[in-house]
Specification:
This protein has 287 residues and is of the alpha/beta class. The chain is 41% helix and 24% strand. The chain is built from 10 helices and 12 strands. The protein has helices spanning 6-18, 21-27, 32-46, 62-87, 100-103, 107-117, 130-138, 190-201, 215-223, 267-279; strands at residues 51-54, 57-60, 92-99, 121-128, 144-148, 156-163, 165-169, 180-185, 206-212, 229-231, 240-242, 254-261. The strands form 4 sheets. It has a 5-stranded mixed sheet with strand order 4-3-5-12-6, with helices on both faces. The chain has a 3-stranded antiparallel sheet with strand order 10-7-11. A hairpin with a 2-residue loop joins strand 1 (51-54) and strand 2 (57-60).
């Protein structure tokens, strides 16, 4: 029986989920050539081709498609075993700061998995906005930070890139007018600045129709049909959909989120940060 290095499986899963060796390499923090070499090693171990040429890129073969589920189960079992062995007797406190974007989507799943293996660890969870959380992190009050990216950082473990979208009520806008009604968070806010810059750059008339200090307030404004807003797919939910094409809204850039770990943080914080860095790119946005 041949043993398979979990690192090979992680790269294979990243390819299956992204459809590109270049994107898979970025997801696992390797060069494209290193990721290609890993896939060649994995195919040699399996004894079957897992990837095949498809246009300018590659796609999974039938064997590759069948093997993806096995790979996911192996990697998850390996990770759970590692966490359980390390966490059974571990205790301490972890201060985690995150924006609402992740608190409503991926975090509950991952925190539950961590808590099963680290039952004695106390979690201090702070949900807020990027500026205030980053300030608390820089003052040593937060161990793990998951917020909108402000720029490269030496303690950064992961960068998540997600397309920004125009979103509005599934029922459409409550009123039709020449100026586009826009809902935004109070400044400072990267999404607010980006939305306004995109509209001004396109010469599109707009007005600020609703503001809020929180995402819950922003969601209420959008659900009511008062205005459209700019967020990522993480903001989608019952009653909220992509803005219709007839609004002719300008293109938006990609939003970047960063995961940072305070260098002086306790080892249990490093363990949770490693789990987040490994799993966040693989979790679907609507998890």
């Amino acid at each position: 029986m041949r043993m398979i290095d979990p690192d090979l499986l992680r790269t294979f899963i990243a390819f299956a989920e992204s459809g590109s060796l270049a994107r898979a390499a970025a997801a696992v923090n390797r060069s494209p050539s290193a990721a290609t070499a890993q896939m060649q090693r994995l195919e040699a171990l399996i004894g079957e081709p897992l990837l095949a040429p498809a246009g300018r890129g590659r796609a999974l073969t039938p064997v590759g498609e069948e093997f993806v589920d096995h790979a996911r189960r192996i990697v998850e079992a390996h990770r759970d075993a590692w966490l359980s062995l390390k966490g059974a007797r571990a205790d301490g406190r972890i201060a985690l700061g995150s924006t609402q974007d992740f608190a409503d989507t991926a975090l509950p799943v991952l925190l539950r998995r961590f808590a099963r293996s680290y039952p004695r660890v106390r979690l201090d969870l702070r949900i807020g906005r990027t500026k205030e959380l980053t300030s608390a992190y820089e003052q040593g009050q937060i161990d793990i930070l998951l917020t909108m990216r402000q720029g490269p950082a030496a303690d950064e473990l992961l960068v998540l890139r997600e397309p920004m979208l125009w979103l509005c009520s599934e029922a459409g806008l409550a009123s039709v007018e020449h100026e586009l009604p826009l809902a935004v968070l109070d400044p400072p806010c990267g999404f607010r600045a980006t939305a306004i810059a995109a509209l001004e750059g396109a010469g599109r008339a707009f007005r600020i129709a609703a503001t809020s200090p929180s995402l819950s307030g922003l969601r209420a404004a959008v659900l009511s049909g008062i205005a459209v807003t700019a967020r990522t797919e993480r903001f989608l939910g019952p009653g909220i959909a992509a803005a219709p094409r007839h609004l002719e809204l300008p293109a938006l850039p990609v939003a970047e989120f960063g995961l940072r770990l305070r260098p002086q943080a306790h080892s249990v914080s490093a363990d949770l940060a490693a789990l987040l860095a490994d799993e966040l790119p693989r979790l679907s946005i609507d998890t």
